[in-house]
Write a structure and sequence with these properties.
The protein is of the alpha+beta class and 137 residues long. The protein has a domain of 46 residues. Helix content is 29%, strand content 25%. The protein is globular. The protein binds zinc ion.
Length: 137
């Protein structure tokens, strides 16, 4: 998925409506950001690991994230601290799905994760691939 993707508000609203039908969601919310925001899976989220050497880089990740926000850095290009390889912030190995996006659609719901065909339906409405992130509150 592309963390810089910004489907139109109309498409996003249609996708959110469909999501609410699929999972009986409460308090649906659509948010747009100027640059990719980190979408956190909340405190219960698992670790953050290097996609190349599997090193635990969670504390580096949050430090780097704060540093970039302070500088207003827009791109997501990083060099891993463990093995010095180039990748995207969005492609780190998040134990629980997390990631970066310019648009979020959020609903409050219980229940099962989206099936692949359901996610694909949402993606068709939006016109871009999505990443489903569960935030446990
Ligand atoms: Zn590494």
């Amino acid at each position: 998925m592309d963390p810089f993707a910004k489907p139109s508000e109309e498409r996003c609203q249609a996708a959110l409506d469909r999501l609410c039908e699929l999972r009986t969601g409460y308090e649906p919310e659509l948010e747009f950001f100027d640059k990719p925001e980190f979408i956190w899976a909340a405190e219960s989220a698992g670790g953050v690991f290097c996609p190349f050497c599997a090193a635990d880089i969670e504390s580096w990740f949050f430090e780097e994230l704060r540093y970039r926000e302070e500088r207003g850095q827009q791109d997501l290009v990083i060099t891993t601290p463990c093995c010095a390889r180039s990748t995207s912030f969005n492609d780190l190995d998040f134990e629980d799905r997390q990631g970066f996006a310019c648009v979020t659609m959020e609903i409050n719901c219980r229940g099962a994760d989206l099936e692949s065909f359901e996610r694909e339906e949402i993606e068709a409405v939006l016109g871009v691939p999505v990443r489903v992130i569960w935030r446990h509150l």
